[in-house]
């Protein structure tokens, strides 16, 4: 009896299953890429939607350009083929003049249509480019702090500016050149086949070779352009980093080091462009050679056809004129290929950014927070950056209007805890609430309007003092701006500036001192008038006079609001209703300054060791 086949060993099964899973993963990945490609194609075409009338007008004029290009050789053919008849006719000169007038009219129509194509078509492309750039910028505004923790500003700047620059040309030349090229090619081939099918068929056989050649170098240009886009982003990043920190660079006399770093990135960009230009050169040479080969083929084979009485001299002249028309679609194909590679590479990089979903967004059914009393609660809060935990099951309550100081060693999570209140980050466990409502159940806009943050890293925008103060409330009047500045102890120094409130403060407020910049940020918070105030105190680097001014401004701003201060100096802590000492394990101690000092615990030890909190 024949024995039954034995069962495969478990290891063999595992190997087969592993191979199956790999194939399934590959198929799933390909399906995902295909779906993404279709989605991006729809997105690409969707940018034309607001400009459909302009697109249709552009394409209609493109049809006119193609039609008039074919009409001119036909008019010339009419004259050349009938020249003996016209010479014998009494009105021969009149007929030639009439045909000349028709040709001039055709040229006029072609010029007007080309004007519309070149100007209005380019403007359509520029508008779409502007729309996409605005969409990218708006999307970046919605992305969370976590996204920017992982990204570099220079790279993002490149995607918003450089990557979208060539898109205007693509949106314009893409449909227009394809329409003109197709119509000219079809029309010219139709006329050529009508004149001499043998010669036209020979040219038709040559066309596929040109297309294959073009597609090959298209792929090479695409790879080179993608690398070039990435490299120019690295150059932008290096420039942005070095120039933003120019004071640090020069204070350490490291200009040569920064130049060396820049030259490295710039050299890599040059190499990437070299690859692209090489492929583009081969592409351009191939198209030019193809055009010349077609012309030589027509002349040689046409002469042979004349000798065999298969073609007349006037027909060869018409044939040559039509071949000239036929060469233009090939050149347009080269242009479409160029703008496609440059534009679509940037479009893909732009889509990669747009496809990043904001980590922090309104929940479905989120409602405006309404009037805020200011009670804040942390319930079993857990949070971490990646796999690094910061809090685990932390619970804390803050009463409406309470002034709370957060102290503790560096890196314990004081700033992170405060960042959870306006949802700059979302908790990974537990909840943060305001007035008994989970902050995830209210709209982000209303939540952040109710929470004012004066950050440790003071950021002022380029522009005037008034512009920066009005950032707290864009519709604030001049009187309200002055009142906010007075409340923040900033009015006097502002009046001492060359143009007062209209003085330009430079990039990031570089023309101001540290204390002046901090007081402007507090004045900005006054204008916002939030119910909850978070102050990541940054007075450690200030002189005593500036510190006192900032402290007075803070106390004035904190009056009547729930206030959390990340405290570093005793002068701030003394005014707090409650001091909370944070440790890696959570809340270590809490109480007043006097009570905690009397307890002689964590707070007292911090105070004795550093002389600060």
Whole-number mean pLDDT: 81
Q: What structural class do you assign from the helix and strand content?
A: alpha/beta
Helix fraction, binned, reads 55-70%
Q: Which descriptor suits the 3D outline?
A: elongated
Tally of contiguous helical segments: 22
**Percent of residues in β-strands:** 5-15%
- Rg to the nearest angstrom? 36 Å
CATH topology of the largest domain: ABC transporter transmembrane region fold
How many structural domains does the protein architecture include?
2
Please state the second-level CATH architecture of the largest domain.
Up-down Bundle
Could you describe the 3D structure shown?
- The structure is a single chain.
- The protein has helices spanning 10-46, 52-81, 83-88, 92-142, 145-150, 153-160, 162-165, 167-195, 197-244, 246-251, 255-307, 313-354, 414-419, 444-450, 465-470, 478-487, 491-495, 514-528, 544-558, 570-573, 593-599, 602-610, and strands at residues 376-385, 388-398, 403-407, 429-434, 437-438, 451-454, 532-536, 562-566, 578-583, 586-591.
- Strands 6-7-8-3-9-10 form a 6-stranded mixed sheet.
- The longest helix is centred in the middle third of the chain and has 53 residues, at 255-307.
- α4 packs antiparallel against α8.
- The chain has 613 residues and is α/β, with parallel strands linked by helices.
- The chain has 2 domains: 48-354, ABC transporter type 1, transmembrane domain (ABC transporter transmembrane region fold, Up-down Bundle); 376-610, P-loop containing nucleotide triphosphate hydrolases (Rossmann fold, 3-Layer(aba) Sandwich), CATH 3.40.50.
- The chain has 22 helices and 10 strands.
- 66% of the residues lie in helices and 10% in strands.
């Amino acid at each position: 009896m024949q024995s039954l086949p034995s069962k495969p060993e478990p290891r063999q099964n595992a190997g087969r299953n592993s191979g199956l899973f790999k194939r399934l993963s590959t198929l799933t990945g390909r399906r995902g890429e295909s779906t993404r490609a279709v989605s991006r194609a729809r997105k690409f075409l969707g940018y034309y939607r607001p400009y459909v009338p302009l697109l249709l007008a552009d394409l209609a004029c493109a049809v006119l350009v193609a039609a008039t290009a074919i009409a001119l050789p036909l008019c010339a053919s009419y004259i050349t083929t009938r020249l003996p008849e016209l010479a014998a006719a009494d009105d021969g000169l009149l007929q030639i003049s009439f045909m000349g007038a028709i040709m001039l009219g055709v040229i006029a129509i072609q010029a007007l249509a080309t004007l519309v194509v070149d100007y209005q078509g380019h403007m359509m492309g520029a508008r779409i480019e502007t729309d996409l750039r605005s969409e990218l910028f708006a999307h970046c505004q919605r992305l969370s702090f976590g996204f920017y923790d992982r990204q570099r500003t220079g790279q993002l700047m490149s995607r918003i500016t450089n990557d979208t620059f060539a898109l205007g040309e693509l949106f314009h030349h893409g449909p227009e050149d394809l329409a003109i090229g197709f119509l000219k090619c079809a029309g010219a081939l139709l006329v050529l086949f009508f004149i001499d099918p043998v010669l036209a068929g020979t040219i038709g056989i040559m066309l596929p070779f040109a297309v294959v050649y073009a597609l090959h170098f298209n792929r090479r240009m695409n790879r080179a352009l993608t690398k070039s886009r990435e490299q120019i982003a690295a150059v932008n990043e290096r420039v942005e980093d070095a120039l933003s920190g120019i004071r640090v660079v020069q204070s350490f006399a490291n200009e040569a080091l920064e130049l060396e770093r820049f030259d490295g990135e710039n050299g890599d960009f040059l190499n990437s462009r070299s690859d692209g230009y090489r492929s583009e050169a081969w592409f351009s040479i191939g198209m030019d050679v193809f055009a010349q080969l077609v012309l030589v083929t027509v002349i040689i084979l046409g002469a042979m056809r004349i000798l065999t009485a298969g073609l007349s001299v006037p027909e060869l002249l018409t044939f040559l004129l039509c071949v000239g028309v036929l060469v233009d679609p090939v050149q347009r194909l080269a242009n479409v290929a160029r703008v496609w590679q440059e534009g679509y590479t940037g479009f893909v990089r732009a889509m990669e950014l747009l496809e990043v979903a904001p980590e922090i967004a309104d929940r479905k059914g989120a409602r405006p927070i309404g009037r805020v009393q200011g009670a804040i609660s942390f319930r079993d809060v857990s949070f971490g950056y990646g796999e690094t935990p910061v809090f685990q099951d932390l619970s804390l309550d803050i009463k409406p209007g309470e002034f709370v100081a957060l102290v503790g060693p560096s890196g314990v999570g004081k700033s992170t805890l405060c960042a959870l209140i306006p949802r700059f980050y979302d908790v990974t466990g537990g909840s943060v609430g305001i007035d008994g409502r989970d902050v995830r159940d209210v709209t982000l806009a209303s939540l952040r309007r109710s929470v004012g943050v004066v950050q440790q890293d003071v950021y002022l925008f380029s522009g005037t003092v008034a512009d920066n103060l009005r950032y707290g409330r864009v519709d604030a009047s001049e009187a309200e701006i002055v009142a906010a500045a007075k409340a923040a102890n900033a009015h006097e120094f502002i009046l001492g500036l060359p143009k007062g409130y209209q003085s330009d403060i430079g990039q990031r407020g570089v023309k101001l001192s540290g204390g002046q910049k901090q007081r402007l940020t507090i004045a900005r918070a006054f204008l916002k008038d939030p119910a909850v105030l978070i102050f990541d105190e940054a007075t450690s680097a200030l002189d005593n006079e500036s510190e006192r001014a900032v402290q007075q401004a803070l106390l004035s701003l904190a009056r009547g609001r729930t206030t959390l201060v990340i405290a570093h100096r005793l002068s701030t802590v003394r005014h707090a209703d409650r001091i909370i000492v944070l440790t890696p394990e959570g809340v270590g101690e809490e109480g007043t300054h006097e009570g905690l000092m009397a307890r002689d615990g964590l707070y007292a030890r911090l105070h004795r060791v550093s002389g600060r909190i």
